[in-house]
Design a protein that fits this description.
By secondary structure, the chain is α/β, with parallel strands linked by helices. It is built from 8 helices and 17 strands. It is about 25% helix and about 25% strand. The chain binds S-adenosylmethionine.
Length: about 325
C-alpha cells in the first residue's frame, strides 16, 4: 500500500515527532529564509507587491529579519532533527545564497559529519546582475548524506535524460565520428583495456552549475506556476533534484515548503511526500496547490509556540 502523504503545520524540528514511527525520507529539501533582513510578503491580489516588505506590499508570508547566526542555528536545529528520519543513502539539500551559505555549510558539517558533504549545486536563476558593484547572480544548494559512512550509498540518477546535457560542439565535431547501424553518432574510448561507447544523442552527464532553469517560471503572475508566495522556486528545479535523488515511490520531504513547490512536483512524479511550514499562508497556499493537482494528503496542525529567532521553540 502507498504510504500516506502529509502536510504539517509545524516547525521543521517538530516534524519528525509527527511522523508515523519508522517512516523514512529519501530526499529532503529545505529552502529556509536567506538572511535578507526584512519580512517577506506575498502577492495575494491584483496590484500587491511581493518580496521584501515595502509600500504596496501584500500580506507578510514569513519573517526573514533574524541575524545570520540565529538563522544558521535554526537551520542546524532543523537538520539535526530531520537527519533522524533520513533513509540509508538519502540526500539532504539546503538551498541558500551568499548571505548564509558559508556559515551554514560549517554548521551542517557539524550535524552530518564533514565526510557526509556530497557537494553543491550552483543555481543561476537568470535574473541578471543589478545595482552598482558586484551583484550575486547565483544561489547554492548544499547536499549532504546522512553520515560520512552513508556517503557512498547516495543515489544520483545521472543516466536520466533530465540529468544530461548536450556534448560541446567541438567535442561532437572532433570525437563523435562513428555512426552505428541505426544512424546514431558515437564515440568509442578504450580505458584500461576496456572499450566504452558514448552516444551523441544521450548527451553528457550534467555538472553542478545549473543555468538553464529560470526563476521567472515561478515568479511571474503571467505563468500558471506562480502562486504569489515570495521566493517560490521553479518546479523544474525541484523536478531535477527529485529525479536525481529518488526512484518512483520514494519519499520526498520539504519542511520549509513555502508555496509547496517540492510537494506538488513529488506528487506529479509519483513520489510520496511529507511537507510542512510554520507559516499559515504557506500551508494555505500549499494545500490549494496540492488540491488543484488532485494529490491526496492529510493535513496535521501542531499547536505551536512562535518559532523564535534563536531557533528555540
Ligand atoms: C524561502 S521560503 C520557501 C519557498 C519554497 N521553497 C517555495 O518554492 O515556495 C522559506 C519558508 O521557510 C519557512 N520557515 C521558516 N522557519 C521555519 C521553521 N522553523 N520551520 C518550518 N518552516 C519555517 C517560512 O515560513 C517560509 O515559508
Amino acid at each position: 500500500m502507498k504510504a500516506d502523504n502529509l502536510l504539517l503545520h509545524a516547525a521543521a524540528w517538530d516534524a519528525p515527532g509527527l511522523l508515523p514511527s519508522g517512516r523514512e525520507l529519501d530526499f529532503v529539501y529545505v529552502d529556509p529564509p536567506y538572511g535578507v533582513g526584512t519580512e517577506m510578503t506575498a502577492r495575494t491580489g491584483m496590484g500587491e507587491r511581493r518580496g521584501r516588505k515595502q509600500e504596496g506590499s501584500g500580506p507578510v508570508a514569513y519573517d526573514d529579519s533574524q541575524p545570520i547566526d540565529a538563522l544558521v542555528a535554526m537551520i542546524a536545529r532543523a537538520a539535526a532533527a530531520l537527519r533522524e528520519r533520513l533513509a540509508k543513502g538519502a540526500t539532504f539539500a539546503v538551498h541558500l545564497d551568499h548571505r548564509a551559505v558559508h556559515e551554514a555549510k560549517v554548521a551542517l558539517d557539524a550535524v552530518f559529519g564533514r565526510g557526509a558533504f556530497i557537494g553543491e549545486i550552483i543555481w543561476v536563476p537568470g535574473n541578471g546582475a543589478r545595482g552598482r558593484g558586484l551583484s550575486m547572480t547565483h544561489q547554492t544548494i548544499l547536499l549532504f548524506a546522512r553520515s560520512p559512512s552513508d556517503r557512498k550509498l547516495v543515489r544520483w540518477n545521472s543516466e536520466l535524460p533530465q540529468l544530461r546535457e548536450p556534448f560541446a560542439r567541438t567535442s561532437l565535431d572532433m570525437h563523435f565520428t562513428n555512426v552505428d547501424a541505426d544512424g546514431r553518432r558515437f564515440r568509442e574510448r578504450i580505458v584500461a583495456g576496456k572499450s566504452y561507447k558514448y552516444y551523441a544523442d544521450v548527451g553528457r552527464k550534467l555538472g553542478t552549475v545549473w543555468s538553464d532553469i529560470s526563476a521567472m517560471r515561478a515568479n511571474t503572475p503571467l505563468n500558471k506556476e506562480g502562486t504569489g508566495y515570495p521566493t517560490q522556486k521553479p518546479e523544474a528545479l525541484l523536478e531535477r533534484l527529485i529525479l536525481a535523488t529518488t526512484t518512483e515511490h520514494g519519499t520526498v520531504g520539504d519542511f520549509m515548503c513555502g508555496s509547496g513547490t517540492t510537494l506538488v512536483v513529488a506528487a506529479r512524479l509519483g513520489r510520496c511526500f511529507i511537507g510542512g511550514d510554520v507559516a499559515e499562508l504557506a500551508i494555505e497556499t500549499t494545500q490549494r496547490r496540492l488540491e488543484a493537482q488532485g494529490a491526496s494528503f492529510r493535513l496535521l496542525a501542531q499547536k505551536m509556540a512562535a518559532a523564535s529567532p534563536s531557533g528555540e521553540a
